[in-house]
Amino acid sequence: MPYVTVTALSHPGLIRDHNEDSLVAGPWTLCATVTENPQTLVFPRGHPLVVAVADGIGGQPGGEVASALTVRQLAAVGPALDGAQAVQDALKLCNQAVYSAADRDPELLTMGTTVAGAVVLEESLLVFNVGDSRVLGVTEDGLRQVSVDDSPPLRPGRRTTSLVTQALGGAPGFSPITPHVSTAPLTPGDRYLICTDGLTDPVPQDELDELLRAHEDGRAAFELWRAAIEAGGPDNITLALVGVGD
Length: 246
Description:
This protein is an alpha+beta fold. It contains five helices and 13 strands.
């Protein structure tokens, strides 16, 4: 039977005092907590399977609330995400849910989160994001970013930025979003890395590529996490490795 593996890990890093990241894989969610070891889940292929990470915006209240709301909403609607329009609509509902929760609690005003992920269909992959969390395809020619960063242009000499040009929530009043959604063909052997910027900011893409060439599944997730920690672990680190089997 065709299947999909998802290997996930979430960790606060070395600097942050708590984890504001969350993750969804099918009906399974991991919200603002820590995995001691990478967790591998196996799903049958054929029905929509959503896998995503959400990174609560730091420096603003309730980042972990916004990220948890987002992944739980995606888990609830995941089986119905059968096309690009359904994904667009789901992300807009997530945005509304974050703003509605903030409206109900003044202490959560301006809370927000980024989100990035994929929906695995029988023969294709729907890639989506809002913000700067990323989806990267593991190819023979190296890692290829398939999500679209919502970030301002980088200053000369800078490789990364903490600024985002759109997110779910994050403003005092409601702001609509324009999610990035694209479709890619799906074949057995395909691998994708879905992660927050706690991995991609401290670890250059060529190093991520080397680690993914050398390792798979749980060992790959562990080595990616270790690379971020050895680079200083400046932010929460959350990642999901998606593999397509026959």
